[in-house]
């Protein structure tokens, strides 16, 4: 804060005071919640479209901490978030069962896709994700794994396990420990395969020679959930404001905003809170 000395001209003091009052008032009365979420909801552009609509409806700001789902859950366990918006249903249900979350609500879904070089040197193209990974492992094809305990990484590991190749994935298998956007960038620059969520892929501009090679397998279904962090674990959690977000995003108004988010005329996420 500015020091107002006896030697400071009155005109300067008069100019300074309104600015000082504005900052203090803005800090004191700003209403916001912190949401730990996935990189896919952030990097797909969904939050840039969704959250301004929530603010119009509620007056609340939402600060997003975008991480892999596993890291987002850890952030909430530490009490560093008020609400979670993630996509690993098994981990989410355990989070609630262990008392860290109040209640899990389904919100929306899309799907995972296997992306790779357009000429597909490993010959994986098709609808079967398990058969594709078996071929990829056998050919020692280059594969970029998120390796970050995200929902996408958890799904990828499930598919490798089904393929019987969870240990010997091939010499071309590399973990980047990074978000979906950076993983796609690495795949694009190195001609590698990568499992991606469709939302981030549709918003990804640096595709180079990458193309969608495997899609349509029912096992690639990708469900998102939302939940308030339990105040019994962390009393400082802004429960009422966090619940306002949950109630809005599963309401017809919030679900409609999700359905209306499109890139190039293609819908990225499909609301299913009512199902």
From TrEMBL:
Q: Which residues form the PBP domain?
A: 31-252
Could you tell me which InterPro entries the record lists for this protein?
ABC-Tungstate_binding, PBP_domain
Ordered alphabetically, the record's keywords are: Signal
The signal sequence is: 1-30
Q: Which PANTHER family match?
A: EXTRACELLULAR TUNGSTATE BINDING PROTEIN
Q: What is this protein called?
A: Extracellular solute-binding protein family 1
Which species is the source of this protein? Acidovorax delafieldii 2AN
């Amino acid at each position: 804060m500015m020091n107002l000395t006896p030697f400071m001209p009155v005109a300067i003091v008069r100019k300074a005071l309104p600015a000082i009052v504005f900052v203090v008032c803005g800090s004191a009365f700003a209403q916001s919640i912190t949401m730990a979420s996935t990189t896919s909801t952030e990097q797909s552009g969904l939050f840039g479209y969704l959250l301004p609509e929530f603010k119009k409806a509620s007056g609340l700001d939402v600060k997003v901490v975008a991480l892999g789902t596993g890291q987002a859950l850890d952030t909430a366990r530490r009490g560093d978030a008020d609400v979670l918006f993630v996509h690993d249903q098994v981990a989410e249900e355990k989070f609630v069962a262990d008392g860290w979350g109040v209640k899990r609500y389904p919100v929306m879904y899309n799907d995972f896709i296997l992306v790779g070089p357009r000429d597909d040197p490993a010959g994986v193209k098709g609808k079967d994700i398990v058969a594709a990974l078996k071929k990829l492992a056998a050919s020692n094809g280059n594969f970029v794994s998120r390796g970050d305990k995200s929902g996408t990484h958890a799904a990828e590991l499930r598919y490798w396990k089904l393929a019987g190749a969870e240990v010997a994935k091939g010499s071309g298998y590399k973990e980047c420990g990074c978000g979906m956007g950076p993983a796609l960038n690495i795949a694009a620059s190195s001609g590698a395969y990568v499992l991606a969520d469709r939302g981030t892929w549709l918003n990804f501009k640096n595709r180079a020679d990458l193309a969608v090679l495997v899609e349509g397998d029912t096992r690639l279904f990708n469900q998102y959930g939302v939940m308030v962090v339990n105040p019994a674990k962390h009393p400082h959690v802004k429960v009422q404001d966090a619940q306002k977000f949950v109630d809005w995003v599963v309401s017809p108004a919030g679900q409609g905003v999700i359905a209306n988010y499109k890139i190039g005329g293609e819908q990225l996420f499909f609301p299913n809170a009512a199902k």
